[in-house]
Amino acid sequence: GENVEQHPSTLSVQEGDSAVIKCTYSDSASNYFPWYKQELGKRPQLIIDIRSNVGEKKDQRIAVTLNKTAKHFSLHITETQPEDSAVYFCAASSPYDMRFGAGTRLTVKP
Amino acid sequence: EAQVTQNPRYLITVTGKKLTVTCSQNMNHEYMSWYRQDPGLGLRQIYYSMNVEVTDKGDVPEGYKVSRKEKRNFPLILESPSPNQTSLYFCASSLDFGVYEQYFGPGTRLTVT
């Protein structure tokens, strides 16, 4: 089955700096890679996703890159703001399995 | 409003007392799933359902049961809860399995003493 590793587990940045979270996956059949944001005490919510036929996707300050050969994908947040503070989860989905990473707690210091 | 609902939101119970956590979605989604969230372990899938009457085990199914008699409902049943099932539980649904966003319920915090 799929195995997803996520790094770092915690990340602290200064407001305005960039943040990068990286994930690796093991199943070459994985074809969908969503990222979820979970604010304290709330449910995870999708912030961006990418499919295996695309190498990069951007939505305002958030971007995701995918390297299928190396089996890794990354979340990039630019110009971070205090409201970006949350736990971020990556996930990898194959036609028969979906796994989440263990999460990254991002803290943006004002 | 399109949503996934769970009840109860908080529950404290004792070892061995059967309980059910309900999950309902109003988006006509085919796929539904249960996860538990524990510190440092992320979201681990307990059971999932591809369609009505079709359910299958996830990564951590021991001690749990589910049923999918109707498309909108996917209850999680703990026949004999134990303290190691103390966790935060999320129900989720998506249009189908695979390349679709999962919508999560608000979560149920369960404590088993």
Features:
heterodimer, A: 110 residues, mainly beta, six-stranded mixed beta sheet, five-stranded antiparallel beta sheet, 11 strands, 59% strand, B: 113 residues, seven-stranded mixed beta sheet, four-stranded antiparallel beta sheet, 0% helix
Q: Unreliable runs of chain A, pLDDT <50, ≥5 residues?
A: none
Number of helices of chain A: 0
Structural class of chain A: mainly beta
- What string, H for helix and E for strand, traces the elements of chain A in order? EEEEEEEEEEE
Number of strands of chain A: 11
Overall geometry of chain B: globular
Q: What distance lies between the first and last C-alpha atoms of chain B, to the nearest angstrom?
A: 36 Å
**Strand and helix order of chain B:** EEEEEEEEEEE
Average of per-residue pLDDT values of chain B: 95
**How many β-strand runs of chain B?**
11
Cα end-to-end separation of chain A: 41 Å
Which range best describes the helical content of chain B: under 10%, 10-25%, 25-40%, 40-55%, 55-70% or over 70%? Answer: under 10%
Mean pLDDT of chain A: 94
The secondary-structure class of chain B comes to mainly beta
What's the alpha carbon Rg of chain A, rounded to whole Å?
A: 13 Å
Q: What portion of residues of chain A belong to β-strands? A: over 45%
Describe this structure in words.
The complex is a heterodimer of chains A (110) and B (113). Chain A has 110 residues and is mainly β. Chain A has no helices and eleven strands. In chain A, the strands form two sheets. In chain A, strands 2, 4, 5, 9, 10 and 11 form a six-stranded mixed sheet that branches. A five-stranded antiparallel sheet of chain A has the order 1-3-8-7-6, with no helix packed on it. The N and C termini of chain A lie far apart (41 Å). The model of chain A has no long low-confidence stretch (mean pLDDT 94). By secondary structure, chain B is an all-beta fold. Chain B contains no helices and eleven strands. Chain B is globular, with a radius of gyration of 13 Å. The termini of chain B are far apart. The mean pLDDT of chain B is 95. Classes of the chains: A mainly beta (110), B mainly beta (113). The A-B interface holds A 6, 9, 31-32, 34, 42-46, 49, 51, 89, 93, 95, 98-103 and B 35, 40-45, 59, 90, 97-99, 101-102, 104-107.
